[in-house]
Known about the structure:
Elements: E1 6-10, H1 18-27, E2 31-35, H2 41-58, E3 63-67, E4 82-85, E5 90-94, E6 106-107, H3 114-117, E7 123-126, E8 131-139, E9 142-149, E10 151-154, E11 159-161, H4 173-185, E12 189-192, H5 198-210, E13 216-221, H6 224-228, H7 230-236, E14 239-243, H8 244-251, H9 256-269, E15 273-277, H10 292-304, E16 308-311, H11 313-316, H12 321-335, H13 339-342, H14 355-370, E17 374-378, H15 383-389, E18 397-401, H16 404-410, E19 416-420, H17 428-441, E20 450-456, E21 465-472
Amino acid sequence: MRRRTKIVATLGPATNSQAAIRELLAAGVDVVRLNFSHGSAKDHLQRAEWVRQAAQSLHRPVGILVDLQGPKIRLECFQGGVAQLVEGAEFVIDTQHPVHAGDASRVGVAYKELHQDVKPGNFLLVDDGRIELQVMKVVGTAVHTIVAMGGEVSDHKGINLRGGGLSAPALTEKDIHDMAIVADMAADYVAISFVRNAQDVQEARQRLLALGCTAGIIAKIERTEALLVIETIIDASDGIMVARGDLGVEIGDAELPAVQKRLIAQARERNKVVITATQMMESMIHSQIPTRAEVFDVANAVLDGTDAVMLSAETATGDYPVKVVQAVDRICFRAERETVVKQSTHRINTHFERIDETIAMATMYAANHLGVTAIAALTESGSTALAMSRISSEIPIFALTRHDQTMGKMALYKGVHPLKLTGFFTDHAHANKATIDLLQAENAVVDGDKVIITKGDLMGVHGGTNALKIVEVGKLLEPGSL
């Protein structure tokens, strides 16, 4: 039995060494997240190199996800670093206020169009909704508010508009500059923050391709307006992230659970990956054990069918990064034993358009009803393995490829275990034998086990999977004996 749900872990000061990263990967991390909101290009490039070295030493593929900062919809700084906002008091947010001169009555804001996007009656939510400000009037560049819910606020806290509607573009000049670093790093995925529509994703893809970068694009769903066109965003992306922090603030916390379930289902239905993120194990930043609510949260995401759960501050700045990964590992593994996770009627009534997709679906239903031990998908791009991973099953999918970047992308796919296939095979008998040999070397199968192998007649062709073969380990004919 192997854990099927993947773990994404953010690197930061708590994991800023090759030894710390190796410990994290050894504990079960499948994909690392490099948060470009913090740190320098040199820092990120170094961490990416450490990740690859650690993954190689552990003989397992690990993907790299770069999370671009996106628009800085944040307050500027307060004198002394903090201010106490009192309920009922007037508080002004002024785009022209000096950066470091904020106090309990007025502060600057990094988002210079704020005064154009709000009107009287709107509510601005600061620091994930901990502070509520009701807009009373807008005078020039100054947004005059009344503190509806007060408290302490510190430098650079984020701002959301309840119900959405901030017009900031998803890609900033910093993001466009950072894309060159992404290309140099050869990252496997790029997460785009505050996506509004499919055009934001398409622009990001065009810019990356112009740099020679073929990283998959993850659209972070954290704006109300994104939900209105979510199907087009999913179609334009390689996957989505349910970014529950900003999204929950904009739509309201009571709406979030149902939206999360819908987003996971919609992504899977459209053959795209989905990451569930934000505060999954928040208490473990400083605690050695999770709360029961966090255990339920992670398990419910697994039961909903998420490809991956993501850790942020827990591994970036937390006191127990390895322990939190170990906790998520055991929670996911136990949740995956439930029947609802192992059985599926997904797309059973769907008409398939592509041959490789048809082979993938036929493979999963055959495997689930035949008593197959393992599935082996020989793949160039990983698309066959991705389609297979949309079907709930407890049978491991081993995706064999010659390409390192394909391995990195498949590290995020639920239930898929990438393996490096060396050599290029021109006949099926040699390919079948090499496949079984590799699975035996991984201790994945023994004599007598049934294995389904999928591949294409023309090996090395993207999207060319058109063959399904069921073999019994130990009875496979040697090449040349046919």
